[in-house]
Amino acid sequence: MKYTRYDLKNKNNGKTFILLILLVLVLAFLFGTIIFKIFSGNYNGGKSLKSETSTGKNSVSKSNMQNVTDPNSIQAAKFIVIQGGIYQNKENAEAEKNLLNAYGTPFTVTEDNKTRVLLGIYVEDQGEKIIKSLNDAKVDNSKMLFTINKDNICDAEIAGIIGANIQILNKLSEKDVKAIQTSELKKWCSSLNNKNNQGKNIAVLKQLKNDVDKMPKEISKDKASENYIYLYQILKKVGSNK
């Protein structure tokens, strides 16, 4: 009786060889993909790409700045200053200021021997959203609405510069933002040109442009309050308050 002999050892070696070939091909593909991404600048260790510049964390988006070349494009610019309380006792004012730290960047101004506690300056629609969130949290507040009528190029440019500054300061109130670059703001502001050099607020416009030009390369979070105070004083000069 004859028996047929199968060489099982050789058969297993063949399967192992094929698996090794497949493994090498897979590893080569993965390695090649990683090398390509590294040299194309797209590799980030497997994490989702998120540019700080594109999200506005360290710069001002030029596209978001107000178009002020035509004063008739928007008849009026409206800004909201959110107010906490008014105190004669500065200690009470500081206590509320500390309370409002959780909601933004509070600051104080002294007028008629009284201290106002204010929580930021916003364009109208954004200010209304902040007020709603404060009301939902049952935090007492009131609003001061400043309106700048764009009757001429001078006032239109003032409104635009204030709006661009507010964009910077509001960004600084975000948790992860430590400083904001000012290069785009400076470049944009220098491009504004009131050729007629007219308007009852022309002195304010010149002051704003000069102060923007003197800004440091970046504004840090700890400088937000003093910049809010500066803008508040400008609004008091040129804006009608309701």
From TrEMBL:
It comes from the Bacteria. InterPro entries: SPOR-like_sf. One of its GO terms (molecular function) is peptidoglycan binding. Keywords: Membrane, Transmembrane, Transmembrane helix. The chain crosses the membrane at residues 17-39. This is SPOR domain-containing protein.
